[in-house]
Amino acid sequence: MTKSEKAKKIGEILDGLYPTPPIPLQHVDSFTLLVAVLLSAQTTDAQVNRVTPALFRRAPDPQSMAKLSETEILKLIRSCGLAPSKARNVKKLAQTLLDEYGGEVPADMEALEKLPGVGHKTASVVMTQAFGQHAFPVDTHIHRLAWRWGLSNGKNVEQTEADLERLWPSEQWGQRHLQIIYFGREYCPARNHDFEACPICSWAAPKSRRK
Predict the structure, then answer these.
(1) Which range, of 28-37, 48-57, 92-101, 150-159, averages the lowest pLDDT?
(2) Start-end ranges of CATH 1.10.1670.10 in the chain?
(3) pTM of the model
(4) Domain 30-129 is classified in which CATH homologous superfamily?
(5) Is 121 a catalytic residue?
(6) Averaged confidence pLDDT in the chain
(7) In the chain, where does the domain assigned CATH 1.10.340.30 lie?
(8) Per the residue annotation, which of 8, 45, 86, 139 is the catalytic one?
(9) Domain 3-21+136-209 is in which class?
(10) How does DSSP classify residue 79?
(11) Pseudo-torsion of CA 123, 129, 131, 137, nearest 10°?
């Protein structure tokens, strides 16, 4: 089976399991999504969703977020991993949006990547989930499953992103990103995985990658 054939079959399975996968991070607009994705590094989406309601009640937009002190932001997000640096970046991010973009989140990948605390993966999530642009965000979980399924050699997330973008049409990238995340959580854990019981690994994972 070629990689293209494998990707097609995987896509059919994912579509059957998650026809309309929801965005896991709670948000109301592009700004709150951007902040939530920034906070999700090194912590779980569930943990982010526990802290953002209080944060966004205090500061639902760049104007009000920029007025909060770094200490105030830190108190609200303390339970997230890397909270001190995230608090610093969230405040800087809000001020940068006010200073350079009129308080609006730019719908541009290059501009997003230049914002404080925003890397390529975060920018990709915002582009596809907030602005409906074609992007395939690859986090460590998608990187792991793409390697496990033999869809990528897994040298780095950049290579995995390029490999996956070649295997599925661009209009499917955002959906595949979400589907693979949900599949990994429900069926395909990193440790103690039962490969034979897995709906995808049972036939897609080469023996050399069943670990």
Answers:
(1) 150-159
(2) 3-21+136-209
(3) 0.92
(4) Hypothetical protein; domain 2 (1.10.340.30)
(5) yes
(6) 96
(7) 30-129
(8) 139
(9) mainly alpha
(10) T
(11) 40
Can you read off the two tokens belonging to residue 182? Answer: 């949900």
DSSP 90-119: HHHHHHHHHHHHTT---S-HHHHHTSTT--
- How many residues are recorded in the chain? 211
172 is written with which tokens? 């499917």
Token duo for residue 38: 């920034």
Residue 111: what pLDDT?
98
- 139 included as an active-site residue: yes
**Residue 157, C-beta contacts closer than 8 angstroms, at least 6 positions apart:** 121, 138, 139, 140, 143
Of 9, 29, 45, 121, the active-site residue reads 121
211 pLDDT more than 90: no
Owner of token pair 């040298």: 155
How confident is the model over 123-145, as a mean pLDDT? Answer: 96
